[in-house]
């Protein structure tokens, strides 16, 4: 199935993997750095030791390629996109880390939606193949200078405040969820995207644990 989606002239932001397998949230101890307890990093790495492909969630432009240990790359959507957490299309900025292979290397490269552009991997430090994903609203193109060195050796930025991953991506009907981290996920199978404008509130909400699963309430 093609990993492309368009509604009313705007692309629908799709989860970049075919399986949701969240293994760590922004509050994980290995995602904290000095002075920052919520870095905005979400890990997807459910299939340990398998380098799963990531597909461009929208048509996006490479805006930063720092050549760090974890092969971190930052992309900005080429145009506004539909996301579950907003009631109208918006630009988004996305950072990915840990792929062993980089398929796009030149700042300014444009990657069409649905194109294989990255993998889960173990570049840099990590306990197994996975991908760091950091998400932010808006076209943030000059934020690397305020990044920090993480425990993994990669450089990343922290959105202020960081976003809830389920408020950014839609899932296709063919996608599976191995571990959704207690979040409410939205699916898109055609027609009008379901939006709820809950993003700003969700960013600021406190989390709690129930049965070992982190819930956003």
Q: Name the structural class.
A: mainly beta
Beta-strand portion reads 25-35%
The gyration radius over C-alpha positions equals 16 Å
Query: How helical, in percent, are the residues?
Result: under 10%
Strand order of the largest sheet: 9-6-7-8-11-4-3-15
Order of helices and strands: EEEEEEEEEEEEEEEEHEE
CATH classification, class level: Mainly Beta
How is the main sheet built?
Answer: 8 strands, mixed
The low-pLDDT segments are 141-156, 198-217
Mean pLDDT: 80
Write down the domain tally. Answer: 1
- By DSSP (H or I, 4+ residues per run), the number of helices equals 1
The CATH architecture designation is Distorted Sandwich
Choose one word for the global shape: globular
First and last CA, distance: 34 Å
CATH T-level fold name:
Glucose Permease (Domain IIA)
CATH superfamily: Glucose Permease (Domain IIA)
Would you count the extended β strands for me? 18
Structural overview:
With 217 residues, the chain is mostly beta strands. It has a single domain, classed as Glucose Permease (Domain IIA) (Distorted Sandwich), CATH 2.70.70. It is 3% helix and 31% strand. The protein contains one helix and 18 strands. The longest helix has 6 residues.
Keywords:
single chain, 217 residues, Glucose Permease (Domain IIA), eight-stranded mixed β-sheet, two-stranded antiparallel sheet, 3% helix, 31% strand, disordered C terminus
């Amino acid at each position: 199935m093609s990993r492309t989606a368009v509604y009313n002239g705007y692309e629908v932001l799709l989860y970049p993997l075919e399986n949701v397998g969240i293994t760590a949230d922004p509050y994980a101890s290995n995602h904290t750095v000095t002075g920052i307890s919520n870095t905005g990093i979400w890990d997807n790495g459910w299939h340990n030791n398998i380098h799963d492909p990531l597909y461009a969630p929208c048509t996006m432009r490479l805006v930063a390629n720092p050549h760090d240990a974890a092969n971190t790359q930052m992309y900005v959507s080429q145009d506004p996109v539909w996301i579950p957490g907003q009631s109208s299309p918006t630009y988004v900025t996305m950072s990915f880390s840990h792929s062993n292979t980089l398929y796009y290397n030149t700042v300014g490269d444009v990657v069409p939606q649905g194109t294989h552009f990255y993998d889960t991997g173990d570049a840099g430090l990590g306990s197994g193949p996975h991908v760091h994903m950091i998400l932010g609203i808006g076209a943030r193109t000059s934020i690397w200078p305020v990044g920090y060195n993480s425990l993994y050796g990669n450089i990343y930025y922290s959105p202020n405040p960081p976003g809830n991953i389920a408020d950014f991506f839609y899932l296709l009907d063919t996608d599976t969820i191995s571990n959704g981290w207690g979040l409410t996920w939205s699916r898109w199978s055609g027609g009008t995207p379901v939006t709820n404008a809950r993003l700003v509130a969700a960013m600021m909400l406190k989390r709690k644990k129930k049965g070992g699963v982190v819930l956003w309430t």
